[in-house]
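step=encode ok
step=design start
structure_in=
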């Protein structure tokens, strides 16, 4: 009878581990971190052993685990602890973290990747025999050519271990598969199956690391000193101050100590900008990891992290790689909202998950940004993080000049031409005439956020979501930005049959269109989610812009991120109001960040840049602070607001969303949840309330916020919330209610 049990993580939303008995013949192989096949109900799953023990579970009859899939653990003890921390903090199951953490290929039974190779047949063991074969092929020209081609690839032949080359490679040079088959039949060549490593490890190091400027060196030294006292240091360095160079220097130091470094970026596209630079300095020990790789490639990179790579450049998923000796994590552009994973669980913030991981490795974390998140700056001021400031641009260039155009006043004076004010048009014309480039920021994609019948006022809306449909010129369709549903733009109003349908409001497509009318000679491109959808579109557009094959780039926030162009002299923000009026408590913080980041693209080296902001609220304090580049002003203003309304960093926010297709089921369920939660939470609970978009994909939404004191223990809350949500779903009629819990939701 078995006495050994394994607690297993299965990739399901189960809030506990499942315990299995280990059959005697597998006992010696069982270990934490190894993948196993286990039965759950009638199915079997690939799970992961968390721990081995000898306590038989009391409440249920244990089943045997069916197989152990690994010779050595796929997941390290540190990874397992990290998953547990994330599940605990973000209120999800370890299985959900496992799903996010392991490449899909490692979550199914792993078949090694193989390819077919060609080698000389073992019966040919001497020079003479080989010549005999060649003579025999004299009248089969294609077969002869194939054999010669193989021999030329093989070079000096060792008959005991003849060269093996991929079949694909051999057939690339015009050789035919039929000729190969014939040579195989004649026992001249032979096919063998080999495991592959497809990682491209061809990059060669050698370029010298940059020499730091005096200001950079000072910042770098301060960081080192602070790392002796704090786990986390925030580097507040303005755009173009050369933060990347400091990162490179710090990573080189880790390598000298035999430790690994993880360099996190918020967007895949940004990794392509920096990878060449890193590989030219550090060579092929730099790996890149993100979801645009195929699943096989990801699995291979995963395995190579402990055996080969010393530096990993990646987006949020690279936190889950099996580092064996991590010394430093860099979180670049730490303020970026794309670091937060919204769906599915685990709904984690990469910065915070990185800090947890670093603690487990006893590694340091460097957060870098020109516009810190209010939370991080708050933590720095409270002494929790170290703070280092780098306030000069690397090339000593002057910061750009900032002008604000009051669009209301311009409109009254008939000086608005579509989306463009006269001063902005003049500035664009001037830049183009000097052969300089222009970036225009418009924070909405599509042509117009809605269309309206001018006779009856009808506005087409999504049938599944409570939003108006956005008109996209590309494809001439109306699109729902929440569920992706699309319908053609009708020529007449479906309500009153009038042909007078007007586009209202403005997106990137309209800006691009109008611009082409004003500047028919200019080469204009657009960069937004739609334009970047094709696989290499993003880097292609940025590449063209960098090579000056584009004069004006119009885009959404995609153009605001860490990009470095030398010839941009003008940045225009077409409509600051859509940013400022966004309905959430971070709107002002984000407005400041976006406007400052995009402004940072103007001017490089010896040229001073120019920024023009169009807004109907020229006296809005955020506009004033952006103009003055006054981050501290923004921070202090935000703290006042956040304190008054008890928002982070003065509280920890958790949101709960209930969803159901029928409002008459959702509403009483939400009322009931309120009654379950409020006695314990009291004024910490807000809701239920309807979000601005209260129906998505045919499901109605009801929301709650829980605001906890900053120092409260989240563990107790987790238990309580999960219990109450389970209690709610046990009620008659409420079993179909979906509930999502999101910790630090914004
Ligand atoms: P940031 O990330 O802080 O906005 P970057 O690292 O992109 O700034 O640096 C801005 C520009 O200055 C880049 O073109 C970079 O190559 C250059 N640069 C910065 N520091 C150095 C250095 N020490 N040596 C050479 N070039 C540098
Ligand atoms: Zn109508
Ligand atoms: Zn929709």
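sequence_out=
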């Amino acid at each position: 009878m078995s006495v050994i049990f394994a607690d297993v993580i299965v990739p399901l939303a189960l809030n506990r581990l499942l315990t299995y008995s280990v059959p005697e013949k597998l006992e010696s192989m069982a270990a934490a971190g190894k993948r196993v096949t286990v039965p759950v109900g009638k199915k079997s799953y690939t799970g992961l052993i968390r721990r081995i023990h000898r306590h038989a579970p009391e409440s249920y009859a244990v089943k045997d685990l069916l197989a152990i899939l690994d010779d050595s653990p796929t997941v390290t003890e540190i990874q397992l602890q990290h998953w547990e921390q994330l599940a605990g903090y973000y209120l999800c199951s370890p299985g959900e973290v496992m799903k996010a953490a392991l490449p899909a290929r490692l979550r199914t039974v792993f078949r090694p990747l193989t390819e077919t190779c060609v080698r000389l047949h073992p019966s040919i063991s001497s020079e003479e025999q080989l010549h005999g074969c060649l003579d025999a092929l004299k009248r089969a020209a294609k077969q002869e050519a194939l054999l010669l081609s193989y021999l030329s690839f093989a070079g000096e032949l060792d008959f005991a271990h003849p060269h093996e080359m991929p079949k694909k490679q051999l057939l690339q040079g015009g050789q035919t598969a039929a000729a190969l088959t014939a040579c195989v039949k004649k026992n001249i060549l032979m096919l063998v199956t080999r495991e592959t490593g497809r990682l491209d490890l061809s990059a060669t190091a050698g370029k010298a690391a940059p020499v730091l400027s005096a200001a950079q060196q000072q910042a770098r030294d301060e960081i080192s000193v602070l790392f002796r006292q704090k786990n986390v240091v925030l580097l507040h360095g303005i755009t173009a101050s050369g933060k990347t160079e400091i990162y490179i220097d710090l990573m080189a130091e880790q390598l000298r100590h035999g430790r690994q470094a993880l360099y996190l970026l918020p967007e895949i596209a940004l990794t392509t900008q920096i990878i060449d630079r890193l590989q030219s300095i550090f060579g092929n020990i730099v790996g890149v990891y993100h979801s645009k790789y195929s699943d096989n490639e990801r699995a291979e990179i995963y395995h190579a992290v402990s055996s080969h790579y010393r530096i990993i450049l990646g987006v949020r998923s690279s936190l889950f790689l099996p580092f064996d000796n991590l010394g430093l994590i860099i979180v670049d552009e730490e303020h970026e909202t794309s670091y937060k994973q919204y769906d599915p669980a685990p709904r984690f913030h990469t910065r915070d998950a990185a800090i947890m991981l670093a603690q487990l490795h006893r590694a340091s974390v460097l957060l870098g940004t020109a516009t810190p998140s209010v939370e991080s700056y708050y933590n720095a001021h409270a002494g929790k993080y170290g703070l280092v400031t780098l306030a000069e641009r690397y090339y000593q260039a002057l910061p750009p000049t900032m002008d604000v155009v009051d669009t209301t006043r311009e409109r009254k004076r008939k000086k608005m031409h579509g989306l463009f004010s006269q001063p902005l048009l003049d500035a664009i014309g001037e830049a183009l005439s000097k052969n300089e480039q222009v970036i225009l920021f418009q924070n909405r994609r599509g042509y117009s956020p809605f269309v309206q019948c001018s006779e009856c006022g009808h506005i087409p809306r999504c049938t599944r979501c409570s939003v108006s449909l956005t008109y996209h010129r590309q494809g001439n369709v109306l699109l729902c930005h929440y569920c992706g549903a699309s319908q053609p733009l009708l020529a007449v109003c479906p309500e009153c049959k009038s042909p007078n349908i007007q586009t209202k409001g403005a997106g990137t497509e309209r800006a691009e269109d109008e611009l082409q009318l004003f500047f028919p000679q200019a080469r204009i491109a657009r960069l937004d989610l739609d334009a970047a959808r094709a696989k290499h579109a993003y880097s292609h557009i940025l590449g063209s812009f960098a090579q000056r094959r584009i004069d004006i780039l119009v885009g959404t926030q995609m153009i605001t991120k860490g990009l470095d162009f030398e010839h941009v002299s003008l940045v225009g923000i077409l409509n600051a109001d859509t940013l400022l009026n966004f309905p959430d408590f971070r709107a002002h913080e984000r407005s400041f960040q976006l406007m400052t980041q995009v402004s940072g693209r103007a001017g490089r080296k010896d040229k001073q840049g120019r920024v023009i902001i169009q807004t109907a609220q020229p006296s809005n304090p955020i506009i004033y602070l952006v103009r003055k580049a006054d981050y501290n002003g923004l921070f202090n203003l935000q703290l006042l607001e956040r304190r008054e309304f008890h928002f982070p960093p003065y509280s920890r926010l958790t949101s709960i969303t209930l969803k159901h297709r029928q409002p008459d089921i959702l509403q009483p369920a939400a009322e009931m949840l309120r009654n379950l939660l409020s006695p314990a939470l009291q004024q910490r609970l807000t809701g239920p309330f309807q979000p601005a978009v209260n129906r998505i994909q045919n499901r109605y939404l009801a929301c709650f916020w829980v605001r906890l004191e900053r120092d409260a223990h989240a563990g107790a809350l987790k238990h309580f919330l999960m219990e109450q949500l389970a209690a709610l779903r046990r009620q008659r009629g409420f079993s179909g209610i979906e509930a999502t819990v999101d910790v630090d939701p914004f």
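step=design ok
step=annotate ok -> The pocket of adenosine-5'-diphosphate (ligand 1) is lined by residues 210-213, 216, 237, 239-245, 394, 562, 564 (CB under 6 Å).
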